[in-house]
From TrEMBL:
GO molecular function, one term: peptidase activity
Span of domain Lon proteolytic: 153-244
Coiled coil: none
Taxonomic source organism: Streptomyces fimbriatus
Designated name of the protein: S16 family serine protease
Keyword Signal: yes
Domain of life: Bacteria
Length: 263
């Protein structure tokens, strides 16, 4: 025997699966991490009590201004991120939702992630040193460079490491500083040949830079649009693709001569 449901009964029956799906969506963990602006560090000075760049085997310049590398802070891979967290982050300019595998490409194991980030940082430091000495045509000299940045991992400080080495050894090439006395921040990986690569979380890094006093931000050219979308007031973007281009742009900015690239 078949019986016909009343309209309210039919709506209740149809709505039940939808409610269940919505409840599941709200409470189920999602494959995202929530990130926010992290710390910055002046690579020309000290970070947590230790000199970031140390050089032996060559005279080192006294520098003014700052070259600040930037970071983001993300929820750990085992943190439960649900739909409410995602929605809240969409309306908060100080936070961003990022795919978890973009933040933690090495997996979910915390120890493995730490090992991976340390390895990435060491490789970045080696390539930054090679790029800087190559740019200065001093790769055949007996110059030893030490780079130390406690509790920071990954390759995104490569460009700033290279610029710091160049500034300490050669400045702008004519006795001045690359920074022109400014607080210059930035981000970008670097290869041994001086090629600058894209990174993640650029809008959050520009916020960290401006918070810590930067007025200039060096950004990988491929990420100009992303950086412009939420650019803090008072921060000037300079797009770069190579170490040489970054140095040339900073020298042009310092001396007030030549063209300074813009996004």
């Amino acid at each position: 025997m078949l019986s016909r449901l009343t309209r309210p009964q039919a709506l209740a029956v149809c709505a039940a699966p939808v409610v269940a799906l919505l409840a599941t969506a709200v409470f189920a963990p999602l494959p995202f991490s929530v990130a926010q602006p992290g710390s910055t560090a002046n690579v020309l000075g000290e970070y947590r009590g230790a000199q970031v760049i140390t050089i032996s085997g060559a005279p080192v310049r006294e520098t003014s201004g700052e070259l600040r590398m930037t970071t983001i802070v993300a929820t750990s891979p085992d943190t439960r991120v649900g739909l409410p967290d995602v929605i809240d982050s969409w309306f908060d300019t100080d936070r961003a939702v990022m795919p978890r595998d973009a933040v933690y490409p090495s997996g979910d194991d915390v120890r493995e992630i730490e090992r991976y980030n340390r390895k990435q940082m060491k490789e970045s430091q080696d390539e930054a040193t090679e790029a800087a000495l190559g740019y200065l045509n001093r790769e055949d000299e007996d110059i030893e460079v030490g780079l130390k940045l406690a509790d920071v991992g990954g390759p995104s400080a490569g460009l700033l490491f290279s610029l710091g080495i160049v500034d300490k050894l050669d400045g702008d090439g004519s006795g001045g500083d690359l920074t022109g006395g400014r607080v210059v921040a930035g981000t970008g990986t670097i290869d041994a040949d001086g090629t600058v690569g894209a990174v993640g979380g650029v809008p959050l890094k520009t916020q960290a830079a401006r918070r810590d006093g930067a007025t200039v931000f060096l950004v990988p050219k491929a990420e100009c649009a992303e950086a412009q979308a939420e650019l803090p007031e008072g921060l000037r973007l300079i797009p770069v693709t190579t170490l040489e281009g970054a140095v040339d742009a900073l020298v042009a900015l310092e001396k007030g001569t030549g063209r300074v690239p813009s996004c």
